[in-house]
Write the structure tokens for this entry.
Amino acid sequence: KAGVTQTPRYLIKTRGQQVTLSCSPISGHRSVSWYQQTPGQGLQFLFEYFSETQRNKGNFPGRFSGRQFSNSRSEMNVSTLELGDSALYLCASSLSGNMNTEAFFGQGTRLTVV
Amino acid sequence: GENVEQHPSTLSVQEGDSAVIKCTYSDSASNYFPWYKQELGKGPQLIIDIRSNVGEKKDQRIAVTLNKTAKHFSLHITETQPEDSAVYFCAARTSYDKVIFGPGTSLSVIP
């Protein structure tokens, strides 16, 4: 069974640009969550999607957005990139995302903003 | 807001010794507590989890305990090996159905 796949693995962007990251969950999983990981802030929750609907959102500015498609694949978008957006972006998939479901992470996308 | 604290931030043990990592959470409605291991350049890997109706769970050299009254949970690794060296994260799924992570513990196992 294939795991969670994130593309691309590495990305370098310039300040002010926008970026789109992709996540393909484990087959059969309908919930996808996104996290930002930085050395200073640790793992911070961005948002969670289930059946194409955003169910939860963390404390990030509106420049961070996402969506989920009917096949459960998800994308997140960051507009007007800032240097501080440099981070490892991780997505996790779970069967249903309810309070007792295991979540499995992808390898992440390393975004560097210059 | 929801918060998960984790201690220690770094831990160094001799191979064969035990390692213990402790976490506390703030949302009393949390009822699912996973632990993740993250190796350099990889995403976090789920290693064990515990649900609130269970006080302890064991999987080979790894065990997790949960004290719901005190809102504490701990990870115990026995007979540590060099390949156990990694960053370990505790987490709690909150009543708002999102997972809040602790800041991580960097474990070094010295051969």
In short: Chain A touches chain B through 26 residues (CB under 8 Å). The longest strand of chain A covers residues 42-50.
